[in-house]
Each structure stands twice: as C-alpha cells, then as structure tokens.
Specification:
The protein is mostly helical and 279 residues long. It has 14 helices and no strands.
Length: 279
C-alpha cells in the first residue's frame, strides 16, 4: 500500500523536478565539501601539532574561553529575556510603525561588524553622544567586559528576535483563543500553548545568536579592545596568537569551532526532546 502511494506520487513529479533533483544533489555535495573541507583541514593541522593540548589549556586559550563563555552567556540571557516579548509584539501586530521597527531590528545583520563597533564607540565612548552623561555618573563602557557584552548583543540579537517572531507568528491564534474561552488566563496560555509551539523556532534562533556572539570579532575589537583576561575573547585571541605562534592559532581556532558546534548540538537536542515530549 505504501509502495503504491509512493509510486503514484513519484509519477506526478513534473519533468522539470526530475531534471533538477540530480542537479540539486550535485550542488549540495559541492557545497558540503566547500564548507567541511576547510574545517577538516584545520582539524588535521591543529591536531597534528605536538603541543595541541598544551595550546588549548594554556593561559591565553583558557582566559579567552572564560571571557567568551561568560560574556556570551550573559548576552544570551539578556537577548532571550528582552527579545522574547519584543518578538511576540512584532509577531502579533501589523502596524506600519512596528514594521518599520522590524526593519531596524535586522539592520545589524547587514551592517559590517567593524562599522557597528565604531558606531557604538561614537555613541557610548567618552567623546560620544552619551559619553559625558555616563562619565558624570561614573560609568565607563568602552574597553570593558561590559562593552564585549554590548557588542555581542548588538550583532547577535537580530538572529534570535527574527526567529522568535516567526515562531510566535506560526502559533495558531485559534488555539490561544480557545484556551482563554475555557477560562485559562492569558499568562497561562502563553506558557502552556504559545511557548511550547514557538519553542523550536526560539531555540534555533538562540543557537544562531549564541554562536554569533561567540564568534563576534569586529565590533568587539573596536568597542571593547583586546585586553587579556578582560576583553579578549576567543576570536581576538586567535588574532593575537597569529602574530607569534601559528600552532596556537590553529589550536584556539579549532577550540572555537568545537564550542560553536557544541552549542548548536545542545540546542538542537533540546528542540528534539521538546518535540518528542509534546508528541
């Protein structure tokens, strides 16, 4: 029975689809090789070094990893905490004003990170628009760990907000209305219906945003600097080590790749687990 249905569907495929499917597989293969070969080459070269473990456990790598995990973790808490209600507002309203705001939200995606860093420096630096008011109350933002967090939020928040907005928009409005007609409070409806249904998109956006925050370079070096133990994240440590030791550069680069992949796998696993529990 199943085989008969499959053959029926297969016979309905347009000739164009039959022609393009092999081409699609060929392009997919080329693309996968294009993406994975550099990573494989990096892994082979880094792991082939005699002192790989020493490089990734050295003070430079350990301090940079600590700063990256700390700042990106704080950034993600802020992005998810503030970005979720913002994304919900964008998803549930279609006013022209919010559509304009929606376009502004995505501006950091197309803005070069170096330009973002310069812009933040002009806004929050000592001679920036808010520099004097902040200095008057004893707040200094540039070239601090706080500046790293601000740079990460600036470049990575749009990835989460956009994904969360799509997730919230995909939740059938009828389910939320039925829940409220049954006497369930809006707050309980939000946590019991809206969040579980939008969760896969939210988690996917969080994974992209977290990985983007971990790999942020341009805005960070312009706005926060490259101070060891304070603002030097893994990408900045790679730049610094490139000037002195290629083996250290390769080791830290592979470490960053491993951390980023681990984040993607972790959140992907959480999404799959949630889907199984809901089903």
């Amino acid at each position: 029975m199943v085989l008969e249905k499959f053959n029926k569907i297969n016979n309905q495929i347009l000739p164009t689809g039959k022609v393009l499917t092999p081409l699609g597989f060929a392009i997919a293969t080329i693309y996968i090789l294009f993406i994975t070969l550099p990573i494989i080459a990096l892994a082979i070269r880094a792991l082939g070094g005699a002192d790989f473990i020493q490089h990734i456990t050295g003070p430079t790598a350990v301090q940079a990893l600590r700063i990256s995990l700390l700042t990106s973790g704080i950034s993600m808490l802020i992005i998810i905490g503030l970005g979720s209600p913002f994304a919900l507002l964008l998803a549930k309203n279609n006013s022209r004003f919010l559509k304009t705001i929606d376009l502004i939200v995505e501006l950091p995606i197309i803005l070069p990170p170096v330009v973002a860093g310069v812009a933040m420096l002009m806004a929050f630096g000592r001679t920036g628009l808010l520099g004097n008011p902040l200095n008057n109350i004893g707040i200094t933002l540039p070239f601090t760990t706080t500046a790293v967090i601000m740079a990460q939020i600036f470049v990575s928040a749009p990835f989460y907000i956009r994904a969360a907005k799509i997730g919230f928009a995909s939740v059938p409005k009828e389910l939320e209305e039925i829940s409220e007609t049954l006497g369930v409070s809006p707050w309980s409806t939000f946590w019991r219906i809206t969040i579980p249904l939008a969760w896969p998109a939210m988690a996917g956006g969080a994974a992209l945003a977290w990985a983007r925050a971990m790999s942020e370079f341009g805005a960070t070096i312009m706005f926060a600097g490259n101070m060891i133990g304070q603002t030097q994240t893994l990408p900045l440590a790679i730049l610094s080590s490139l000037e002195s030791n290629l083996e250290t550069t390769l080791a830290i680069s592979l470490l960053l790749v491993g951390v980023s992949i681990s984040i993607l796998i972790l959140l992907s696993t959480l999404v799959d687990t949630t889907k199984r529990n809901n089903s």
